[in-house]
Design goal:
Number of helices: 11
Largest sheet: none
Helix content: over 70%
Shape: globular
Radius of gyration: 18 Å
Number of strands: 0
Low-confidence stretches: none
Mean pLDDT: 91
Order of helices and strands: HHHHHHHHHHH
Distance between the termini: 25 Å
Length: 265
């Protein structure tokens, strides 16, 4: 990769990871538009790690409460909101972790294509719009039950397919379950932490044991750029999602799907 590719792709990742428009889809599409060689899943995971740093920094108080709550869960105590939320996050992580272990390799080999992304961008864009229109907004993040966490976690597993959008599909699930927009987004972002951490760790082990030459400096720059841009993206989304809703993002997804269909497919 050239340095221009590294910086552009890191910016794209940071902008799109926490907006419901699919970061993985954009990381496939941008090289296709510019005629670049696909950067591969390893780089994608590296810039996702930058997003992980951003969400941990932005929600640092929530993360601290989850860590304390997790320690209480380890001693079989579910007597605090933090411990119940920690158990919910753990339960919600299982579907994506299992799906990733079983299907990530096959997905990378077979589904990183513009034709797949057209379908997922448009289909989940329509579903997101429906959820936002009929969602009751009667519940907040403290109301998340284990059932809610597991269902949203199952939705998160779908995001392994490029174009789906991890934040988009989990926020959509939250809206269908009656959570207010900002609360659905907050739980979605917190749920991303263990999944991105596990994916980054798994891919790092693969790289270290593969014997391949790893461009660590490029990866490091990509992580740093992605982290800064992702933090600003979270700040924007959390500040304005209640006011603007999900309609602009659904429309963007549909327009982008149409553009891809016209240009690349």
């Amino acid at each position: 990769m050239t340095w221009i590719q590294v910086v552009v792709l890191a910016i794209v990742q940071g902008l799109t990871e926490f907006l419901p428009i699919s970061s993985s889809g954009h990381l496939v599409l941008v090289p296709s538009f510019f005629g670049w060689t696909d950067q591969g899943l390893a780089f994608d995971v590296a810039v996702h790690f930058g997003s992980l740093l951003a969400v941990c920094a932005y929600f640092r108080d929530d993360i601290a409460a989850l860590i304390v709550g997790g320690l209480r869960v380890a001693t079989f105590k579910l007597d605090t909101p933090g411990s119940r939320m920690a158990l919910g996050i753990a339960l919600g992580t299982i579907p994506a972790a299992v799906a990733g272990l079983l299907a990530a390799g096959w997905i990378e080999a077979n589904l990183r294509s513009p034709s797949v992304i057209v379908f997922t961008l448009a289909g989940y864009g329509v579903l997101m719009l429906v959820a936002d229109r009929i969602g009751k907004s009667e519940r907040n993040v403290t109301d998340v039950t284990l059932r809610d966490a597991f269902l949203i976690g199952c939705a998160q597993a779908l995001a392994l397919i490029p174009g789906t959008s991890r934040s988009g599909v989990t926020i959509t699930a939250g809206r269908f379950l009656g959570f207010a927009r900002q609360d659905a987004a907050r739980f979605s972002f917190l749920l991303s932490v263990p999944v991105i951490f596990l994916a980054s760790g798994f891919e790092s082990i693969n790289l270290l044991t593969s014997g391949e030459v790893v461009p660590w400096v490029q990866f490091g720059v990509g992580i740093a750029v992605s982290a800064v841009v992702a933090y600003l993206s979270i700040e924007f989304f959390m500040r304005f999602v209640t006011r603007i809703g999900l309609l602009p993002f659904a429309v963007y997804r549909l327009l982008l799907a149409g553009l891809i269909l016209y240009v690349l497919v």
